[in-house]
Structures are given as C-alpha cells and as structure tokens.
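Chapter summary example.
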Amino acid sequence: MFDFTGVALYHLLSEAQTVAAPKSISLVSHSLGAHVVLRCLAVLGERFFREKSTLRVDHALLLAAAVEDDVFHNPDRPEEYHFPEAAFGVSRLHISTSRADEVLGGAFRVNEHDAALGFKGPESMSPLASLARRVEEVSQGQARFRFEIHDFSPSSATIMNPALHVYDHGGYWANPEQTNYYVNLIRVP
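The structure predicted for these 189 residues follows.
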C-alpha cells in the first residue's frame, strides 16, 4: 500500500511540475507516512539519477518516522523497505527523533524486529554521508543532498526549548511552537 501511495505522490508532484511548476516543494510526514514520502523520493531520485527528470523536492521532514533505522542502506533481503535512492530526490532531509516515543520504542521494535528511524535516528550515519557525496558526484556538482537529525527527546542536548520536547508518538503536534519550528526548518532561503 505504501509503495502505491508513494508512487501516486510522485505522479502528483510530476503533474504539478508540468502544469505550473512550483517555486519549491516541501513534504512533511508523520509515522508511517515516512514510507510514502521516502518511496516518492526514491522514484524521483531514480529518475533524476537516470537523467529522465530534474524534479527534486527541496525539503522533506520525517516526524516520528516508523521505518527501519537502516532505511538508507541497500537491503539484505528483497522484502525489506529501503530507500537509498531517496537521497537523489531531495535537497534537504530532516529526521526527527524522540527516545520518549513509546510506539517507536516498543511496538515498532516488537513488530518489525528492528529499531525505528524516528526513535533514535539512523543505525549508522555513514550511508547518509556517502549518499551526500554520491549525489554531488553524480550530478557533477549541480545537486546536493543534506540531512539533519533533530532529537526532540526530553533529555535532548540539541533541543534546548522544553516546549519542543516530544513525550509520546503524537507529541509532535502538541503546541504551535513545534509547528513554527518545523516551518523554519523547511523554509526555503
């Protein structure tokens, strides 16, 4: 289901590009929506990589991403969902995490037998760093891929404002200060 929805989102963005090209595109997802966004970005990335399209998303924000923490690796098993091609479809990727998220820290781990990206971030930063170099290399310096991890845990050393801390799975939308923070992340300079 997520694969089909991600492809449908790709078609929507592609159609929007032909009808009236938007000045910028930002995608925001929560929980399982990360599958949809990453699948869309992977399709965009594959088309960009093969020089079939120049369409890319400016910003993607994954809030409480309910996907495996190794989602940017090439899969060991073909039935797993992995999206390394997504790096070619987006300029800036923002990944939010919270170690207080009981859904991603408990139910996700039990169900998927793996850690969630939205719980404590990527299993390893090296695939993302490698993808950042690869995007620039493949595009001959014409495109970039940048990523940031935002730890909204109550014990976070990076998010100093306690109003932004996330105490549960739905806590990313608890107050207007959080929404303002997200808008500032994806604002096009």
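To summarize the output: The beta strands are 26-30, 57-63, 90-97, 146-151.
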